[in-house]
Amino acid sequence: MSFTRIQRGGLRNLIFLIFGGLCASAQSQRLDVLPGQRVLFNGDSITKGYGFGNYTDPSPLRTIYGIAGILAKENLRNAPVFFRPEQVWAGRDADGNPKTIDSLAGELQTWLRRGDARTGDWMVYEDAGQVNQIVSPGPSPHLTDMYGRYRRNLRGMIEEADRSLGRNHILLMTMFEYDPRIPWCKWEVPLDDGKHSANDAIRDEASELGVRVIDMRRIMDRAHQYVQAKGWGRMVGPDGIHPNIYGNAVMAFAILGAMGADIGFWRVETLAPHFRSPEAGGDVKTIWGFTKNPTDVERIAILRDLQAIVAKEMPVSMIEPRTRAKGQFLHHGRLLDHPATQPAGTTRPVSYEIG
Question: CB within 8 A of 293, min separation 6: which ones?
Answer without folding.
Answer: 286, 287
